[in-house]
Write a structure and sequence with these properties.
With about 210 residues, this protein is of the alpha/beta class. About 40% of the residues lie in helices and about 20% in strands. It contains six helices and six strands; from the N terminus they run βαβαβαβαβαβα. It has a six-stranded parallel β-sheet with strand order 2-1-3-4-5-6, sandwiched between helices. Helix 1 packs across helix 5 (about 150-165) and helix 2 crosses helix 3.
């Protein structure tokens, strides 16, 4: 089976979605699948990407949560894909992994519902999705082997997904989070914001300013 790994992040390099697909790819190949990578980082879908995606037997989207929904550029790409993918006659299975900046993975439930509705609209078969909380930590641990340390929950979810794709099975959406205490995740995020502010010539107190102040 040929599986499309579709990165829906607007970031061209070093995205959490890319990290997730990097973890997932060898699991799919161990199941005997051939993977093809696509990056939909712009509103315009390249013709070669549309054709390549349409030639696959299953699609797996990895994307960030944007205000409880999908990134706008990805919505544009999905609309462009509808006509070409509908020709598959509903045989193509679709799965998704939505990573959240929130600690709780269930924050991704609405985004997964949007993707499921899109599948129905395009005549495709929805498998299920994964909502991953604390996705903001992925870039800082990208060299950690899958299944070690904070990636234990992610490993379980991705292994289940790889198996489901091979069987063509669906199921209920899975909601999980990275293996780290919520307080530690919150502190790490605050340190990151402070470093980003300093790198852009701001002071830490500027982060608390209200618009118009």
């Amino acid at each position: 089976m040929q599986v499309a790994l579709i990165n829906g992040s607007p970031k061209r390099h070093r995205s959490a979605s890319g990290c997730i697909l990097k973890y997932l790819q060898p699991l799919l190949e161990q199941e005997g699948h051939v993977t093809a990578a696509f990056s939909l980082g712009r509103p315009e879908l390249a013709p070669q990407d549309a054709k390549g995606i349409g030639d696959c037997d299953a699609l797996i989207f990895a994307l960030p949560l944007y205000v409880d929904g999908l990134p706008s550029h990805l919505v544009s790409c999905l609309l462009q894909l509808e006509e070409s993918l509908a020709r598959s006659g509903g045989k193509m299975g679709v799965y998704a992994i939505v990573n959240c900046g929130f600690y709780e993975g269930h924050q991704a439930r609405w985004a997964l519902n949007i993707l499921e509705n899109w599948c129905h609209r395009a005549g495709l078969r929805w498998g299920y999705g994964i909502g991953l909380g604390a996705g903001g930590v992925l870039l800082s641990i990208e060299n950690v082997p899958l299944g070690a340390g904070p990636t234990r929950n992610l490993a379980q979810a991705l292994r289940q997904l790889a198996s489901s794709v091979g069987q063509g099975s669906g199921g209920e959406n899975v909601f999980t989070t990275m293996n780290m205490p919520k307080l530690l995740y919150k502190l790490a995020a605050e340190v990151g914001w402070c470093r980003s502010a300093k790198a852009n010539g701001l002071k830490i107190r500027d982060l608390s300013l209200r618009r118009g102040s």
